[in-house]
Amino acid sequence: MSVLKKINAKLDGMAPGDREIGQYIVDNPDQMLRLSTAALAAEIGRSQSSVVKFSQKLGYASYQELKLAVSEAKAQDWQVPAGVIHGSIEVGDTYPVILKKLIGSKLLSMQQTVAANSERIISRTLELLDGARRIHLVGVGASSLVARDFSYKLMKLGRNVLHDSDSHIQMANAATLGPGDVLFALSYSGASIETLRIAELAAKRGTTVIAVTGLHDNPLSRVADIRLYTIADEERARSSSITARDAQLTLTDLLFILLLQKQPDANDYVHNSEAAVSVLKAERSS
Predict the structure, then answer these.
(1) Total number of domains constituting the chain
(2) Which keywords does this chain's UniProt record carry (predicted)?
(3) What percent of the residues of the chain are helix, what percent strand, and what percent coil, each to the nearest 5?
């Protein structure tokens, strides 16, 4: 049973305050996903602590975990294409079943990630990136690959971008940041020690920290000024951060496209980049 159905089923037996919170969530799940505990409390005229306690009464350790459950419930309303399966890939699965499960997991992760981030927070992130003096992208492991991809895209737009796969160099770069700069930190767990320490250093230097992380409460999200959430099946046994990477790429690609639309001379930058590369391709083929 989804959390929305569970709340709806328990409404009649709840105390008046809890019933008011529960009814709001059932009636406005999309709005709830955009609200912090304080904002939700203000919306319905209850205390912030009552919202937290409501989450705990449902069996969740925090309000963020409740939001994740609501996001998952909303995603169930979205139907994956016919023939696509979402579930854990097992050792004995056949090739066609593996394909269907893999595609289903990727699609669901991307859809849930988009649902977990409001247009307002995406717009605010866009404003910060657009106005940044420098943008420093950090991440380790698979998150570093996403950071590198995003850095290339931003450089195509003529942005002043810092990125290096070596965490020591990332830390050294962070030591040069200050007000007017943006640190864009990617970590699904939010507990990668290198990324966390870099974010803490940047924050101390007055840099705006944007975190791309899981919806659960974590150290990186607590350091960040802006939080973008990714949703993935990373708690299950896995051999690689497949769905977390897809979720991160969904957000970075979205931000790149929106910046492309926002920047008046973006097409000129992209054209110049493509023209420069085409010269090398021509020389190689000659």
Answers:
(1) 2
(2) DNA-binding, Transcription, Transcription regulation
(3) 60, 10, 30
